[in-house]
Structures are given as structure tokens and as C-alpha cells.
Specification:
By secondary structure, the chain is mainly β. It has 2 helices and 23 strands. Strands 13-12-14-20-15-21-23-22 form an 8-stranded mixed beta sheet. It is globular, with a radius of gyration of 37 Å.
Length: 265
């Protein structure tokens, strides 16, 4: 003779004289667990989940973001007299890291370069000419007043070079005509101010905790002019004192096409 019991949703059928622990069982699960009535179970039920993600940072212009992560869920259950069953599922987001403008160059790499004095007095050739070194050689320094630096784009077939002031530089994307970089050494007399007309000094901002380098927008040349008020762009400098003389306060280093120069704020 067989006897059946209904114990907390488990239908147990046993023969007479057979212990409950040896009986067969069938389990029916309807979904959400109910807390309204006691539940009997002979095995543990465990659910664990872990998720990991990355912070997202944004700071104005260059931004960087990192997303995604992984989630893992493991469940284990055993019914009365049955064996444990374990199911593991894992999902992962796309993850990764992107920046709008790549990894920024830190502002700490930039510095101001005041002109050097010659042993006999006066300044040495003071206008640095980027990308003028041939075959890995040293870059040229042009003599203010008689020469200017005609800078060509990095990697161009024709390197940058010092040219006589009467010789016009090539123009176009990546070309810069440096007639001055420091007002004290490169400009004098009736035109004591070094100006980058039409240019804008842009602060680099911060990306991932790194202060990015400042740079110039729309800068194609520098020229000596009569006064600071006439400069429609960046007033060039290598010291705060030069900026104070021009009605500004601070000389800030910035990068421009392979050059490290200063602009007044």
C-alpha cells in the first residue's frame, strides 16, 4: 500500500514501512517565493550577484568615459531527497575606454623659454624654428629683425627654415610664419609688442585628473606691432613682466605646432 502526503508544495509518495528520507519527490515551482506560510527544504538555496563598473569622468572639452562591467548570478537548490542543481549565468557590457581627442598631453610638459643673452651683450638668435632640423639635426634659431621662421607642417618634404625677412613664407594648413616669439628680444623701437593676430589662446582643461596642455586656435603668424591695444589675437610673452607692461597679468605657456611659447592673460 502506498501513502501520499502534501508537504509545503512537495508531493511525497511512499510505500508502507519506508522512511520519508528515502521517498521519491516531485517539486513544483510557480516563480516568486511566498512568505505567508512555512517552507521546508533539506538543502540550501543561494543566490549571489556581483557587478563591476568603471567611473565615468567628463571635463568639458575632452572627455573620457569608461563603461560596462560584468554581472554573474549563481543559484543552487536541492529538494527533499533530491540532488543539488546549479545554474550560473554571466553577462558583460561592452566596456572599454574612449576619449574625444585621444590621450591629452599634460600641461606640465610645457615651459616658457626666455631669450638667452650673448656673452658680449644683446640677445642670441632667439626665434626658435620648429621642424627645421634636417636628418635629426638641431633646430634652427632665426635672428630677429633680419630673419623669420617659415614653419612647414610636421613631416612635410620641405623642412622649416629661417628665411630673410623680405622672403614670404608659404601659407596653408600647418604653415606658420614666426616673425617674433618674445617681445623683448624680437621686437623693438616703434613696434615693441609681439602679436599673433586672429589667434585664440585655449586652456586645455582636465581629463582623467590630468591638466591638459593649452593651445592656440586659428594661429598662422606672429608679428611685431606698435601697441598691445592693436593686437586682435594673442599677445606673445616669455615672462609675467612683459604681460604687465601690455596691460595683462600672467604669461601662460601653450603649444603651437611643435613650438612652446607664451601668451598673456
Amino acid at each position: 500500500m502506498k501513502t501520499s502526503w502534501l508537504i509545503a508544495g512537495i508531493l511525497v509518495t511512499c510505500g508502507v514501512g519506508v522512511s520519508v528520507g528515502a521517498c521519491g519527490s516531485s517539486t513544483s515551482t510557480t516563480g516568486a517565493a511566498s512568505t505567508g506560510s512555512p517552507t521546508s527544504s533539506s538543502g540550501p538555496t543561494t543566490t549571489s550577484s556581483t557587478s563591476s563598473g568603471s567611473p565615468t569622468s567628463s571635463s568639458g572639452s575632452p572627455t573620457s568615459s569608461s563603461g560596462g562591467g560584468s554581472t554573474t548570478t549563481t543559484s543552487s537548490s536541492s529538494g527533499l531527497g533530491g540532488s543539488a542543481a546549479t545554474t550560473t549565468s554571466s553577462s558583460s557590457g561592452a566596456g572599454g575606454s574612449t576619449t574625444d581627442a585621444g590621450s591629452c598631453e599634460p600641461q606640465s610638459k610645457l615651459s616658457l623659454h626666455p631669450p638667452k643673452m650673448a656673452d658680449g651683450g644683446g640677445y642670441l638668435s632667439s626665434i626658435y624654428c620648429p621642424f627645421s632640423g634636417v636628418d635629426g639635426g638641431a633646430a634652427e634659431y632665426c635672428t630677429a629683425g633680419t630673419e623669420h621662421c617659415c614653419e612647414t607642417p610636421e613631416g612635410a618634404a620641405t623642412p622649416s627654415a629661417c628665411q630673410p625677412s623680405s622672403t614670404a613664407c608659404m601659407t596653408g594648413k600647418g604653415y606658420t610664419d614666426w616673425q617674433c616669439e618674445d617681445p623683448t628680444a624680437d621686437c623693438s623701437g616703434s613696434t615693441p609688442v609681439c602679436c599673433a593676430p586672429g589667434a585664440t589662446l585655449v586652456m586645455g582643461g582636465t581629463t582623467n585628473g590630468v591638466v591638459c596642455e593649452n593651445y592656440a586656435a586659428s594661429m598662422v603668424n606672429t608679428v611685431c606691432i606698435a601697441n598691445a591695444a592693436a593686437c586682435t589675437g594673442i599677445i606673445m610673452c616669455t615672462s609675467d613682466a612683459e604681460c604687465v607692461a601690455a596691460g595683462k597679468t600672467t604669461c601662460v605657456a601653450f603649444a603651437k605646432a611643435g613650438n612652446q611659447v607664451g601668451g598673456c592673460q
